[in-house]
Amino acid sequence: MPDTPRLIRRPEWTALEDHRADSMLHPQLRDLFATDPGRAERYTVRAGDLRIDYSKHLITDETLALLQELATATDVFGLRDAMFRGEKINTTEDRAVLHTALRAARDAVVEVDGENVVPAVHTVLDKMSAFAEKVRSGEWRGHTGRRIRTVVNIGIGGSDLGPAMAYEALRSFTDRELAVRFVSNVDGADLHEAVRDLDAAETLFIIASKTFTTIETITNATSARDWLLTELKAGPDAVAAHFVALSTNAEKVADFGIDTANMFAFWDWVGGRYSFDSAIGLSLMIAIGPDRFREMLEGFRIVDEHFRTAPAESNAPLLMGLLGIWYGNFFEAQSHAVLPYSHYLSRFTAYLQQLDMESNGKSTGRDGHPVDWQTGPVVWGTPGTNGQHAYYQLIHQGTKLIPADFIGLINPVDELSPALRAQHDLLMANFFAQTQALAFGKTPDEVRAEGVPEELVPHKTFRGNRPTTTILAPELTPSVLGQLVALYEHKVFVQGAIWNIDSFDQWGVELGKILAKRVEPALTEGAEVPGLDPSTAALVATYRTLRKQ
Ligand code: F6P
């Protein structure tokens, strides 16, 4: 038996179950606001530039107090401090978890195994900056002497989603003369579409892979090298001017044929999904420039400091984590929607899917025992107004409880014309209207008062009580993006700490990788694959039969 009490046997857990059964069986947001008009103000916290209103949740002061007691009992802040100190809290991989050191100030000290890692972080940042400036200024030349016009980042998972998301988010800060494209899928169509209209002489490939063994990335990188050499009609000496690597694995980078002088390093204490503010962000840095990149790092740091020092009752990541626990564990909510009202944040939720689901999609506790409580939710969502015309129907009137985060910006980006800037009010009117409708709905009497025929009243009634968090920021700057990402990183941390799981490993992705390696020879050479189940064996046979050579 583990030495600490199982989560669901803790008195703080059963107190929450009792609270739900006794006082919060059918909570009504209309009533909660009517009896507590101060809750909008009281349930709003600030983290840097982010204003987070969580008043439209099915909670009272008592709920929050009980959730905080659970956080205290599970020592969330103790684990947080251990993380910031560089302790090896990723126990299944025996690694420190120090993405926070990636944005530490130059004079900060963060030790792993007795060594201060901050100088190395800044050495790499400086090297990235010098390289990014060379590419941006045109000083970096391709093999034929032409300047670089397109950067293609080849990576997958954490080596793709972060920079791809941030490039979209910060597009208005990018050098519009320099395009960045992202290739992740091992489907050859991805690389084909990315390079088909490019001039190889003006193309730089960034091969981003922490391990430099990921089959998708190495396969695409090899194909990209072949494409480049064919297009340039050049030998392997052309590679140096067109390929750089971002990795922790210098040996594999050299084996691939990339000069390690053109490698930008990071470390095993940076998890893939926590890595886009490391060297993995090089494509982004080239796009927005080193100064903007550092502004983004400062944004991360603002929320790191907030998480580290804000008291529990105003600690935004803690509160957001606790709210997720409230719905996931006490209301049986299975999913969590993240709905940005910003075109620039169109990839934000996709990025969060890896951050959250690869971190907290676990069913074995840190103690090695199976958990007997729900862990990470399904995270989903797309930009808000598009979602309104697709799946919001289900959020408003479906049978499932879907807590949602609404992310909105008070100002559009500077670059928009006055006419397009004016559209921002309409966008934000939708933003505010939706959370109001979700929370307060429309009663049958309100529907009748509009003269709706009685038989349609049930159809036009909105029950409301759909919980939402509203996150408002002044505008989408690099700093604000860093703040938003850090907010979610730490929210995920809080939940993993309470669920007693290791949020920093990802063993669950291994089995599929191993099986794919085993199946591939059956597809390409018709080789016998021992141990294939009858369903998969039949599917493979059909594939072989119908495959065009
Ligand atoms: O999906 C598994 C995973 O290991 C992720 O955690 C990681 O972000 C991704 O693969 C890519 O790994 P690498 O950067 O080593 O190529």
TrEMBL record:
Keywords: Cytoplasm, Gluconeogenesis, Glycolysis, Isomerase. One of its GO terms (molecular function) is monosaccharide binding. Pfam families: PGI. It comes from the Bacteria. Its main location: cytoplasm. It is found in: Cytoplasm. This is Glucose-6-phosphate isomerase. The gene is pgi.
